[in-house]
Structure formats: structure tokens, C-alpha cells
Amino acid sequence: MNHSISLTINGARRKVELDDPRVTLLDLLRERLDLTGTKKGCDRGQCGACTILVDGRRINSCLALAVSFDGAEITTIEGLARGDELHPVQAAFIAHDGFQCGYCTPGQIMSAVGLIAEGQAGDDPERVREAMSGNICRCGAYKGITEAVIEAQAHMTGAKRGEAA
Amino acid sequence: MNRFDYVKPQSVAEAVAAAAEPGAAFLAAGTNLLDLMKGGITRPQRLVDVTHLPDLSAIETLPDGGARIGALVKNSDLATDPAFARQYPAVAEALLSGASAQLRNAATVGGNLMQRTRCAYFYDPASACNKRSPGAGCDALGGENHGHAVLGWSDSCIAVHPSDFCVPLAALGAIVEIEGSNGRREVPLTAFHLLPGSTPDKETVLEPGEMIVAVRLPAEAAGFAGHQRYLKVRDRTSYAFAVVSAAAALRMDGGTIGAARLALGGVALKPWRSEAAEAALAGKAPGQAAFAAAAEAAFAEAKPSGDNAYKIDLGKRVVIRALALAAAGTPDRLPALPASPFAPVPEGVLHV
């Protein structure tokens, strides 16, 4: 039986026909919508490489059945930059060497964007590390990742304050 | 993953009817279910998606001051609800010590209660497991079992229940609201999960089709809000299941303990409330002597199920420390590492 769902992906509304209810959001993005920025690592919710935002919240897309997300708003790594202008979290990852091989990086960056939106960690490195513990980096770039998250957060909250003023 | 029929009911009544069919399973966030299905451990013929059902996503304060948490409330939303976390801080601390931020954003209250053990033999279809295939035997017995149960286990199954959330719920007297084809019923959380006995495949009191619609915390539990902690020892600092954990809550009556609540995680196939330990604390002055007596009471019936005798000694120490932390008072803000033994402790709290 076919299932028809509608998703808003990186701001664009997409109608999706699913011929199989087993398709995860991760496989839908990568295999059917050509959005391969979201990575498949463990495919079991343990590594965080597949992290995306659904309705503004970070989740593991490998453990989400697409058919259950009719009407959801999805942001992937492809949806962060504005043209050639990088998102502040992307820029901070480059500035702080927050990666080596880069495979976990889209998930790290999406997780960091989610973390900053949650507003629970502040600028305490211990809280940032704890809140990023669902994202594994086998190259061990954690030091740069933590610095990047803290700097991007300062930049983004500072920018907000600037807008308010 | 096996093929399955996907159904999306519009009401709890429709969901209950759809899930009463043999081979059906409820789908909430699916963070555990999909993992099990990908491994071929669970092969439901029909998934009943309850995520869009109305009226199951609220955190309510009841007229008597208690709390009612809808079955679809996300773990992260409950943990960061300021009013809830103030009233039931050990529940918030337990939630934030579990899984990862991504999983907490997806996983639901009802799903947390329904999650399956993480016993490696249960997860390995090539191993014998009475829970997965009744009568097959148990390869955890005599296997790699340093993480297995020391309380309430049987020769059929020595697995442990993995939930953190359920531990303070058990301590604080939570009630599970269940809806089935015969209407609504209520079960105390401590009676919701079943010990293995000779039927470890039967894990909860739920009958086919029955679903959790809410979990309630009694108003009386709020009397313990000022002295309440969750402590969780893990193999790594974050994003790991408990080796042993404890939820401790005290209602202080001047300089003595008016009443105590204590439950353990990681030691049995259900969240393990110890009323014997609670009784040992009532009327006593908080301190090493009372806490050690409570720890002895909590583990009086414990016995190793394999290479895990250490969990009995460790568990006693976890109880003593959780009680010491609770006696020192609930912190204004949870530590950076919730429930972690590596979190800073106030001066003089330990070594009392």
C-alpha cells in the first residue's frame, strides 16, 4: 500500500510517495531526495551522524519512520547556509578545526544548531560536551567541536541582541 | 527489517482495537522499536502509529497538586518543564542522564516504560534467549553477564530493565493509566513491570491492545522535592545505561528523616523499589549509620547471577551516596553531568 506524505524540507514543500513504510527519514533524504549531506553511520541511533532538525528539534533520522512524519518541517545540513554565506556554526567548525575526516560533521553541526536552540548549555564546556554526547567523532576532534559550539553560540546570541538593539 | 502493515488510528479507541490483533505493536517515537526491528529481534506484522493521537502530549497539574504526564510527552520536554522539574527533580535528573539529546527529543514517556532490556544475548538472534524465544534457554547464564541482575532474577532470565526514568517514578509512587478494549484501568508503576519467573517473555501487565495513556505522580510525592536526587554509575560518563543507579528522596522532619523513598535501577528486570530501605530510614537522623543500614536492607536479598557480585557492593555505595546527596538538598540547578558520580558535590556531603 502506498503512503502519501508531505514534508517541508529546507523551506521547500515536498510531496513524497512511499511505496514501503519501512523507509526512514535518513534513507528518504539520501536515497530518494538526493540530499546526501546527512550521513549514515551506525543506522541504529548510536553515533549521531544522521542528526537532522524536525520541527526545530534535533533527532536521529535513522530511527524515524518517514511515514510517521507527515506535515513535519525538516532542516538538514544543506539548509543551513544562505547561498555562499555559511551558517555561524559551520563557520565556527572551520575556524576551530572541529573535524578531520568530516564524516560525522553534518551530524555534529546539526546537533550543535539544535543544542544552541535548546538554550540549556550556556558557555560551560562541560555542559556543551554532555549535550553533544550523542555525536561520536572517531577522529577525536572533540576539543575543536566544543570550542566551535561555544563560539557560534556567543556569535548567534550576540547577533540577536544586536538585532534587538 | 520485516515488512509490516502501517496503520494510523485517529483515536485511542481505534488504536486499541487495531493493536489487539496478533502481531501488532504500537509505534511512538520508535527509538527502541526500530532498533529492534532492524536487528530482526522484533518482527511485528502491523505497526499502530499513535504519534498523532490527540490529548496525549500534555503535562498537567492536577487539582490535588499531583502531576499527570501524557504518554506522548517527549523526555526532553518533561525534563525541562520548570514547574515539573521543581516538583519532581529526581525525575528530571534521571531523564537527563539517559540516552542522548537527540533520543530524548524523540523518545516518549509511554515508550520509555515499554523499552526492552539491552541484554546483549536478547539483542543477538544467534544466542539463546527465553525472552525472545520462550523455552530456548538463556545464554547470559554463564556468559558475559557482569551487567546482569542481582535482584529478582530467575534461571530463565537474568536481564535488567534499562530505564532511568522509571527508577524515580517507582520511588515516588507513580501510577500508570492504561486504556484497553474494556476501558481504562490504573496500575502502580512498581506493579507494571513483571519479574522474569519462568515467563520472561511476559514483560508487563499490559494485555494485547492495551496502551499507556498517561503516568501520574501523586501530590504527596512533592513533599520530597527539597531532598531528592538520582545517581547513576555508568561504564562511561555520558550516553550509557546504568550499571547501578538509585533514586533517593527524603521528607525531612526537622533534624530527622520523616519519610524516605528509594528505588534502584540496573539491578533487576524492573525498577526496584526498596520499602525495607525506606522503613530503615524513617525517624532516623540523616547520616552514615542510617544510610548504610538502608543500603544493607536494600540488598539483603541480592545474589549474583554470574560475574556480577561487585554490583551488590557497588549498589550499596550508590545507595549511601544517593541518600547523602538527597540529604544535602536538591540543587538549584542540575549539575553539568546529571546523576553522575563525577559531578561536583557540596563540601562535607560525602565521608559523613
Overview of this protein structure:
The complex is a heterodimer of chains A (165) and B (352). Chain A starts with a strand and ends with a helix. Chain A folds into two domains: 3-79, Beta-grasp domain (Ubiquitin-like (UB roll)), CATH 3.10.20; 88-164, Orthogonal Bundle (DNA polymerase, domain 1). With 165 residues, chain A is of the alpha+beta class. Chain A has helices at residues 25-32, 88-95, 105-118, 125-131, 142-164; strands at 3-9, 12-18, 51-54, 57-60, 73-75. The radius of gyration of chain A is 16 Å and the shape is globular. The mean pLDDT of chain A is 96. Chain B is α+β, with helices and mostly antiparallel strands and 352 residues long. Chain B has a domain at 226-328: Enolase-like, domain 1. Helix content of chain B is 26%, strand content 19%. Chain B has helices spanning 12-19, 33-38, 75-79, 82-87, 89-96, 101-106, 109-114, 166-171, 189-192, 275-281, 288-298, 310-328; strands at residues 5-7, 24-27, 46-49, 59-61, 67-70, 175-180, 183-188, 211-217, 228-234, 242-253, 256-265, 272-273. In chain B, the strands form three sheets. In chain B, strands 4-5-8-6-7 form a five-stranded antiparallel beta sheet. In chain B, α11 crosses α12 (310-328). Chain B is globular and about 60 Å long. The chains are: A alpha+beta (165), B alpha+beta (352). Chain A binds chain B through residues 1, 3, 20-22, 24, 43-45, 48, 51, 57-60, 62-65, 67-68, 111, 114-115, 118, 120, 124, 126-127, 129-135, and chain B through 1, 3-6, 27, 29-31, 34-35, 38-39, 47, 49, 51, 76, 80, 99-103, 105-106, 237-239, 336-338.
